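Onboarding guide, step 5: your first structure request.
Type a short instruction followed by the sequence, for example:

Predict the 3D structure of this protein.
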Amino acid sequence: MAVQVYGVNHVVIEVDNAQKAVEFYADVFNLKMLRGGEGAAWCQLGEHQFLAIFEVKEIQPDRMKHFGIMVRDQEQVEEIRQKLKTKYGLSLEPEGGCDFRDPWGNRIQVVDLHDESLVWLLPYREIQDLGITFGSKNS
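The system replies with structure tokens like these:
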């Protein structure tokens, strides 16, 4: 039988203070805490995934490794962009996008449901039901 992958179960990031990281991700992305303690935390990330946060003694920021968080629309991307820049003083890479490094050096990319690179992730019927179109100025 061929293996059938349903998606990603979890993503892990390293920080030097798990509680502060939970507060940051709850504030920026409204993530719900699932459980935590003893230098680790787990937050719900979407319907069936979670973000695992682990404390380490020495943080080693990644160069290209990153993960993407998908939000509903460009308005939510802009809300996140503004909070990252004004409240947390973080820079965006590139300035017009919403790629950033969290306060611990973890690289995150924020996209919305209209990002054309996501079309292969969603069943075509689901895209139609959501009314998502690509290549149109109305999208």
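Each response can be followed by summary notes, for example: The chain has a mean pLDDT of 82.
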